[in-house]
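sorry for the late reply, my laptop died twice this morning and i had to redo everyting from scratch. anyway the thing you sent over, i finally got around to it. pasting the sequence first so we're on the same page, its 445 residues, then the predicted structure underneath. double check i copied it right bc i was rushing
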Amino acid sequence: MDYMHEYRQKVVTADQAAGLVKSNMWIEYAFGICSAYEFDEALAKRKDELYNVNIRCDIGSYPHFTAEADPSGEIFTWNSWHVAAHDKKYIGKNLYYIPMKFHENPMMTRKDCVPDDIIVIMTTPMDEHGYFNFGASAATTYAGIETAKTVIVEVNKNMPRVLGGEQECIHISQVDYVIETKNPPLMVLPAAPPSETDKAIAHHIMERLYDGCCLQLGIGGIPNAVGTMIAESDLQDLGVHTEMYVDAYLLMARKGKITGAKKRLNRYKQVFAFAMGSQELYDYIDNNPGVAAFPVDYTNNPSVVAQIDDFVSINACVEVDLFGQVCSESVGTRHLSGTGGQLDFVEGAYKSKGGQSFVCLASTITRKDGTLASKINATLTPGAIVTDPRTATHMLVTEFGVANMKGKSTWERAEALVKIAHPMFQDQLIADAAKMGIWRRTNKR
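ok and here's the structure:
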């Protein structure tokens, strides 16, 4: 079949595609580096023609042209499933967070969200079979496609072609319009260099890893430190099942540490929902049969994760209280990120046979005036969002050790957390715990 004939009939300019938008519409931009670029740039130019256009996105990786064009949010309002670093300047002005557990995103899109009038997805060029590949993100895209009235793809030759998995591509017959872009470079996310504290935390985790573990790593210095240590270790036959594929996996894979030979699900495959990192990472996943892209309602589903033996989840947080509640997304009411998949993997990893969930944080933070403050406190900062409730938290890790919250009463939790707090704050934490009735005279110091 001549798919190119159908393709040519659907090609439009970015301006023509943006011309489809009417006031009061809901527009979806695909996840991460598959987000709209030239479409949003063209839509911003129509600011004076429109009102009340809602844009829904998750880590839109490119410039937010419509948000920049309308700082007050009177014309364009962004609604974000997660707040990335470049989103923060818009939060509360013309960008608002949609609370979610990541594995429920496709379900909420299909079941609860206002249906999209238009979805825009940056993809690979069409292949000889008529398919556009979602490249570095199969996370949530198909749910948006199924519920949108109009489907637009932005073709970018720089997008890696990532094999499935499932729901990692779309056929020309399902596409309404094609924008042939100027092939903007993909957003790259430099790996955060680990600090000495990150390395100390990673060392505590390394002591609990063994051959055949299946890894889920979050973003930041601690996962990078773990990846580096694993690459230089004697560990073998590790597996990968994660939401986010980062450069730490590339390092481990090239050192021969990842085979997936012990995985019960998707054996021998590195499974992920989206990739974000260096250009080298994108080059590695391009047409690589050793990796597989899946939607996030598979990768992050706790019931799926629980089926994978020896699952290890490693994530970071902002602060912890003496009850074992974890905040990973705000400082008080000041929004930082989002729940993302952390709670998904905290719950799924614990239910895995031999599974371990680690949530990590440095014991202190340096204030602007140069003084230290503890990140383990009696209670969370007023207004802080509880990302992991105390009923879900498994192991908390600082540079001073690991505290297992499971199976412990309130006084045992307080005792375990005081032990991994910075020594200069331990006396105050004990006093606070006593006031709250969660400290016993017989508690160990």
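Residues 196-435 form a domain with the Glutaconate Coenzyme A-transferase fold (CATH 3.40.1080.20).
thats about all i looked at so far, will dig more tmrw
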